[in-house]
Structures are given as structure tokens and as C-alpha cells.
Amino acid sequence: MIDFNYSVALICCLLAYGLFKKLQRRRAFPLPPGPPGEPLIGHLRVYPRTHDTYLKWHKLYGDIVHLSVLGQPIIVLNTDQAANELLQKRGKIYSERPYMPMHDMIGWGEMLTFLNTGDSFNKARKLLQDPFTQPKCIMFQEMQLSLTHLLLKSMLTNPTEFNAHLKRFTTAVVVEIAYGHRILSDDDKHAEIIEAVEHVLEIGGDLGTSPVDLLPILRHLPSWLPGAWFIQYAKEANIVATALINNPFDEVLSKLANGTAPDCFTTSALETMKNDNQETDEDMRRLKNAAAALHSAGSDTTWGTLKTFVLLMVLYPYKQRKVQDELDTVLGGDRLPNFSDRGIRFILVKVIQRLASGGILLSPSAYHIGIPRMTYIVDFTYQRTQQSSQVHGVSQWMKLFTENLRTSPQNVSYRTPKVAMNPVQTQSSDTVGGDSSIHSSRRRN
Questions:
Q1: Cβ within 8 Å of residue 73, ≥6 positions away
Q2: How confident is the model at residue 231 (pLDDT cuts 50, 70, 90)?
Q3: How many other β-carbons are positioned within 10 Å of the β-carbon of residue 244?
């Protein structure tokens, strides 16, 4: 009986909320076209779906598709042109994040990625920007070379496990930069935290699409209520998030206390905060979240880039041969490259740069991903609309597979840079990947 009463109350709340939002939107200007929704709940039963659904909607309704879930308008951008037009050229009004209660419940609400523009965002961004300018990144080069040599040795010893080697390498680089801790095995506690975070993200689904994000009042439901799986998920994910944010940071504090802490992002930031007399609880919490953001996000993106590079070399052995021949010609075949060779514009460097900047389009990892944006002023290419709130989901899969980009969207041709085969001497490092710095002055996710 109790379960039945809760279910009835939940349904009534959903209907009431949907009716309220519908009445609230009646005076709004027209929105872009989209599939017909159901009364009150809108597109709740069809959102989110697979990329195939977005492909179908794109053919029927165009580049910009409007959905509505319980009265909350959601804009899906299906092409690169639409995304660039709104999120890049008019990024000033599209840089906000929608409120996602699930992230507060998990404990990620203060991560830079999910902050809206303002004082907290600016301080968090500055905290991550300042230590990663090109001159300051020189301090990481010796460590990067050392870990790279360990990676190559692992590749030679057990080449069939190349994916695990790449994962451990990228995690080790980021963890040592953030906390000064060296990872030498897969059972390292820092590596295990990363694995747990990735598992939490995988089972949680697309960002901003959980029931509690669509209807925040659901966060108050008891976890034992049928259908309230997201409450238990948030509790379990909070344990992982707390470990990610606190455990490595507390370890650094412990090492500082006994004088054994190595130079790293966290120790450098702590020293700066001490010198500037900025050691409040808020400052410490901001630093914890900044270091955790490096810990969790940096390794995964780099890992994806390196995996894609391996795939390209396997698919195009003639390209691999040209890359190898160029390296042998320049290096003489008796040494490995190092940072002193950065002035030489290797084909290898150009390939990695294109991968890192998204210039090479691949299908295996192209799914409906991305962090939603929010705006209070919507300005489309073909119409102008004002709304009190908008959420923008960018379908990355659709951006890669729309027919105006590919004659056969399901059979993507892998593109590699068309560059001269001869190395060119240059002192420039103005492209993505040209230096070791991390640039976060503009939002691109």
C-alpha cells in the first residue's frame, strides 16, 4: 500500500510539474521543429535514445531539433555547422551549464566542468591555467620522458596488452602531475580510483538525462521506492567521488607534513595559497576539485587520443612506414626523440595534433556525448527566440555522420593530415599539441 501511494503521488507530481511548465511556456516564441510530444510529459518516453533516433530526426526536422521533457526545452544540434554557429560564434550566451542535481548528489557540483560563469568559475579556471603555461610545463618534461620509456618497455615486453599499457601511461602522467605520485602497476590505488570513476560514469548514462535532472524534486525519494534506482546510484557514486577528491589530496598533505612531498600541481598551489594568505576552507575545497578534475578527466582524453593513433597506424601501414622512416632519418636510428627535437615538424607530431584537436574523424568512439549547455537567450540561424531557460545537447555522433559530411555515414573514411614528407625546421608552437601547456580559457566541451 505504501509503495502504491508513493507511486500515485509521484505520477501526480510529474503531471502537475509538466502542466505548470507547459503553461509557463505558452507565451514564448516558436522553437525549432521537432517530433510531436505527448501531453504534459512531452518527449519523456523517447529521450534519451540512441544516435540512430537523432539521425532520423535530423532528416525529418533539420540541423536543430527541439524536444521538451516535462516542460523543459532541450535543443539538439545535429551538425558541426549548427554547433559552431551557436556554441563557438555566439558562445558568450551559450557558455552556462544547466543545473544538474545528480552531480550535487554525487559530489561533483563544484568541479570546474560543471560550474557556471562567475567568481567561482574564474577562480577555479585560474587555478588550473596558471601552472600549465608553456614555460612552467618544462618541469614535467623529465617525468614525461621517464614514463614514456617505461611505456615503450612494456610495449616490447607484452605488445598484445598495448591498450592496458596506454591506459596506465596516461593515468600515470596525470596523477604524477597532479599529486606527485608515480603509478607503476595496474593495482595502484590511484589507478583503481580512476577505474571506479569511469565505471560510475559508464553506468550513469548521458550527463543531464537522469530522472532527477529532469525533475529535481525526485532527489527526495527514498532509495527503496520502485523505480528510484538513481537514488541508490547517487549514494554509491558519492563514495567514489569522495575518494577521488579527498584521498590523493590528503596523501599530499601527509607528505608535506613529514617533508617528503614532491613538486606537483597540488604542492605548488598550496604554496601559492599560503603565500597569498588564501587558505580558507573554500580555497582548499576549490583546489581539491581542481586536482581531481586533472586526475579524472586528463587521463581519459589522452588515452583516447593514443588509442586512435594506434588504430590509424594499423589501418594505414604505409603511413606508419613513412612516419617511421622520417624518425629514423632524423634521429639516426640509434636514439629516441626527446623534447630537444620539438623544433622539427615531424609528420608524427602533426598526426597527434590533428587527433588531439578532433581534426581526424573516427567512428568507434563517436557517440551522443558532451556536457549540456544552458542559455537564457536563444538565437538560431533561421529564427530568434527568447526563453527563460534552454538546455543544449550536442550530438557528437550526428556531427560526424550527417550525410553532408560523408556520402556513406556508416563507412567513414579515416583522414590523415596531408603534409610534406620532409621535416621542416620551425620555432613555432602555436597549434594544439605544440607545447605541453593546458589551455582552458575557452569552453569547448
A1: 25, 31, 66, 67, 387, 389, 390, 391
A2: very high
A3: 25
Query: Can you give the residue ranges of every domain in the chain?
Result: 1-99+361-413, 110-315
248, 175 contact by CB (below 8 A): yes
Q: Which of 27-31, 101-105, 122-126 has the lowest mean pLDDT?
A: 27-31
Q: Is 286 helix (H, G, I), strand (E, B) or coil?
A: helix
- Distance (Å, rounded) from C-alpha 383 to C-alpha 30? 9
Chain segment 113-132, per-residue pLDDT in tens: 888 888 888 888 888 888 88
Contact 124, 289 (CB under 8 A): yes
Q: Report the alpha-carbon distance of residue 271 to residue 261 in Å, rounded.
A: 12
How far is residue 237 from each of residues 30, 249, 298, measured CA to CA in Å?
Answer: 39, 19, 20
CA distances from 243 to 174, 181, 270, 294, 371 (A): 17, 16, 20, 14, 23
Task: Please say whether the beta carbons of 395 and 76 come within 8 A.
Answer: yes
| Chain CA centroid to CA 282, Å | 24
Q: Read off φ and ψ for residue 174, nearest 5 degrees.
A: -65, -40
Tell which residue, 206, 268, 193, has the closest CA to residue 237: 193
What percentage of the chain carries pLDDT values higher than 70?
71
How many other C-beta atoms lie within 10 A of the C-beta of residue 111? 19
- The mean pLDDT of 9-16, rounded to a whole number, is 63
Q: Are 424 and 345 in contact (CB under 8 A)?
A: yes
Give the model's pLDDT for residue 440: 30
Q: Tell me the sheet residues that pair with 64.
A: 77
Q: What is the DSSP letter of 386?
A: E
Query: Which residues 6+ apart lie within 8 Å of 201 measured at CB?
Result: none
Please say whether the beta carbons of 435 and 140 come within 8 A: no
106-115, 227-236, 372-381, range with greatest mean pLDDT: 227-236
**Class of the CATH domain delimited by 110-315:** mainly alpha
The two counts, helices (H) then strands (E), for the chain are 16, 4
- 40-98 pLDDT per residue, tens: 778 888 776 666 777 788 889 988 888 887 777 788 877 777 777 777 777 777 777 77
For residue 209, the one-letter residue type is T
Are 348 and 325 in contact by the 8 Å Cβ rule? The answer is: no
Q: In the numeric block, which cell numbers belong to residue 175?
A: 596523477
